[in-house]
Amino acid sequence: xxxxxxxxxxxxxxxxxxxxxxxxxxxxxxxxxxxxxxxxxxxxxxxxxxxxxxxxxxxxxxxxxxxxxxxxxxxxxxxxxxxxxxxxxxxxxxxxxxxxxxxxxxxxxxxxxxxxxxxxxxxxxxxxxxxxxxxxxxxxxxxxxxxxxxxxxxxxxxxxxxxxxxxxxxxxxxxxxxxxxxxxxxxxxxxxxxxxxxxxxxxxxxxxxxxxxxxxxxxxxxxxxxxxxxxxxxxxxxxxxxxxxxxxxxxxxxxxxxxxxxxxxxxxxxxxxxxxxxxxxxxxxxxxxxxxxxxxxxxxxxxxxxxxxxxxxxxxxxxxxxxxxxxxxxxxxxxxxxxxxxxxxxxx
Length: 348
Ligand code: GDP
Ligand code: ZN
Fold this sequence. Notes:
With 348 residues, the chain is an alpha/beta fold.
């Protein structure tokens, strides 16, 4: 299921945090009547977690209905070890009016369709769950200032493909540099690419790709992600262009992950903006998930020896053989190179 650094033990531990497997502890108030201890929560409403601030969750209830409301909620005590993140679907009880000063209570989570996790860097063992239930990842990279790094984009791509999330790429600041040499890195990958320049942001084109999806925006600080989010979602108010006077580097004042509703001519979708992510640890990405994103190559690889790495030096690799004997077309060979580059990102 998931990815991005850590080891199996951590993943197992994480799974324990899921609502379905929370261990019940001895209850010091066990002599109270059972009904008071454990309400059935049959009246729970399911809502979308929009954001988290100091233990308080913003939950959108009755989405797209006339009585849609945003409720502030705290997690029930039995969920105190459960990671609840932006994009999660939560079951909420208690006061769900959303009136000023009221507080609902989150009593459970709906099973996630995807989960994006990261560690701060490759040596950091601490895993953070970033976003739940996203089905697209929009990777923002600048043509210059800061210089684009193909390796960082590869890592985002691996993260997305491993989590079963469709990647999209936006190259900003094309008024400063021509991105074609950089973009050549991604030939062979099924990747929708948008380019954006100062004063010429392709808001409608990008917006159309957001409709009906939940899209997590990722990018290094300073690439223009907040500028883009503010253009797509008027009123989003993401802080832009803040420079840390001590380091001189871009500083993210938008420090928490939030869901924002995109509304465009052809419909609506969710933008999930993440604070600047320096790097993604990729410790336990499953190569099979990356291969699966290259459908036609995955078919050929069925003839590979067990445990084949599919890297250029892999012996008896059906993919390398197909490339050598001309079975693969030129496009197929480009796609194999792209696949091998991604596999090498975390395998080697
Ligand atoms: P973030 O850190 O990725 O959220 O980046 P910001 O949105 O704060 O943008 C960083 C800086 O880049 C700001 O000074 C923006 O005005 C500038 N910027 C954003 N998009 C463009 C662009 O397309 N061209 C140029 N030249 N500058 C841009
Ligand atoms: Zn192989």
